[in-house]
Amino acid sequence: MKFSPKLPDQDINVSKRNHLKDFFVLLSGFIGIIMIILLILVALADYLVSYIPLDVEKELFQSMHQLAPRASDPDSERGKVEQYLDRLVTRLNNGWPEVAKQLNGQSSKKQKFTVAVIHMNTPNAFILPGGHIGVTHGLLRLVKSENGLAMVIAHEMAHQYKRHPLRTLGRGIVVLLAMSTLTSSDDSWWIESLSSNAAKIGLLKFSRDQEREADKLGLALVTQLYGHRKGATEFFDAISKIAKVRPGYLAFLNSHPATHERLLVLADKSRDSTHKLSPLPKHVIQFGKIDFETHKNTLEMLKR
Amino acid sequence: MVNLIVIILLLILGYLFGRLAESRHYKRIALAEKNLLYIPTGSTRTLPSSLTALQSELVSGNVVVSVDYFKRILGALRSFFGGRVTSMESLLDRARREAIIRMKLAAADIGATIIFNVRLETSTISTAGSFTGSVEVLAYATAIVEKNPQLICDSELETVLQ
Question: How far apart are CA A135 and CA A280, in angstroms?
Fold first, then answer.
């Protein structure tokens, strides 16, 4: 018998598998699991929020409100604008029990709000947990009528009526805790990055839903106050012209629904010419015109 | 968001370069295995009686191979769900075969005609997070320089090396 050396069978130890397919199957499974965990946690956080009384919320976040303080001098220009905003908020707030009755079938109590003007050129408004509304200087400059301003403020108030700020915070905390538990068991940075990004994108969906809800409720509040919805689109009309828009396929990265979508909801379809816009008080228009960023001494004046 | 883009880029680069490196490596391995086929190699500890050794020497071949980023992530994902880590199979296969090739090259250097008692050792030398990054494979054996290679009976060699 002749010994003839031969090569071993090739590839017996290497599986013929499509790694790309494997990768996408496993990755979607992994992201799916994260999303399910996220959904459960968010539902849990939402459930718990309703057990936190409003006054406890207010007390908890009192120090946070100091990040956007009111004018120290109520008689300063800024102070007067804030007093005007207080009155606007009160008028909107007065309509809430009736609006809640129409929407939910049962009346709801009015809530306590505070408003402060923020020195920022970007037209925007926000609400902090505990009902502290921030209105930027840029927004006061942008809106043309009280109706336009009222819509933005009513939108923020709607967030508070629905306890959105606290819910968002609660979600953020539980998701953060969950992700840190998941990643501490496996110290690879990419898992952390993947899961936290998946979680962030997942949370944005809730954010967009909240914005839609706040738009709807805000519109109801404005309609309750003025009897019509004319002027409600002022802010969105203006930002649709200046804001950069992400293409539709990237909409899942947005924290807010697309402006054109919001405009469709808010649009005044009646076109009734008898509906009149309420003008902004002169001192508010005057205040909006101040360009505090180019005039340092004006800024000093505004700080008072 | 930025680190997600970085990860995706690394995955694509890892996949492309990993594939390229692997197919090149396999080509080199196939060629070297063919060229070294003339040295019979086995794991038996004892020499056949008809073989007269003129010289015997310990030969070793050692290699470190790393897996690409794509396969590493795929392996880590697999370790999350469980199952065969197929993405690591080619890494170990390449490492083993390359180590044996290097060992045989060392044997060829001293003019060895036959190799006995082949042993393989594997160890992880770097980890990425909790998952294997690079592996080292060491192959070592006894290389024999025969006094008269023609004297060894083919059938005996066949049984010894099986």
Answer: 15
Q: Pairing state of beta strands A114-118 and A125-128?
A: unpaired
Q: What is the ipTM of this complex?
A: 0.77
CA distances from A292 to A68, A116, A136, A158, A276 (A): 17, 16, 12, 30, 32
Backbone angles phi, psi at B114, to 5 degrees: -155, 150
In the three-class reduction of DSSP (H, G, I as helix; E, B as strand; rest coil), residue B23 is classed as helix
pLDDT of the residue at B18: 92
Provide the H-helix boundaries in chain A.
19-49, 54-60, 62-65, 77-104, 137-142, 146-161, 164-184, 189-226, 234-242, 259-266, 282-289, 296-303
Residue range B107-140, pLDDT digits in tens: 999 999 899 999 999 998 876 555 667 889 999 9
Contact state of B73 with A23 under an 8 Å Cβ cutoff: yes
Chain A CB contacts of B74 below 8 Å: 19, 22-23, 26
For the whole model, what pTM was predicted?
0.68
Per-residue pLDDT, A265: 78
CB A92 within 8 A of CB A129: no
CA dihedral sign, ordered A272, A94, A262, A282: positive
* Residue B110, CA atoms < 13 Å, CB-side half-sphere: 19
In chain A, what residues touch B155 (CB-CB under 8 Å)? 1, 3
Is B70–A19 a contact, with Cβ atoms under 8 angstroms apart?
Answer: yes
Residues of chain A in contact with residue B4, where contact means CB-CB under 8 angstroms, are 193-194, 197
If you measure CA to CA, which chain A residue comes closest to B84?
A15
- Three-state DSSP class for residue A15: coil
Considering only CB atoms, which chain A residues are within 8 Å of B84?
Answer: 15
Contact between B40 and A188 using a beta-carbon 8 Å cutoff: no
* Cβ contact B29:B76 at 8 Å: no
In the numeric block, the tokens 């709607």 are attached to: A158
What are the Cα distances from residue B151, in Å, to A126, B36, B45, B52, B111? 94, 21, 20, 9, 17
Beta sheet of A132-136, edge-to-edge order:
A114-118, A132-136, A125-128
What SS3 class is residue A66?
A: coil
Nearest residue in B to A19, CA atom: B87
Residue B120 contacts A, CB cutoff 8 Å: no
Per-residue pLDDT averaged across B72-78, rounded? 85
The burial of A80, by beta-carbon neighbours within 10 Å (0-12 exposed, 13-18 middle, 19 or more buried), is given as middle
The tally of CA atoms less than 13 A away on the side-chain side of residue A184 is 6
Nearest to A197 among B4, B70, B77 (CB): B4
Please report, in angstroms and rounded to a whole number, the separation of the first and last CA atoms in chain B: 57
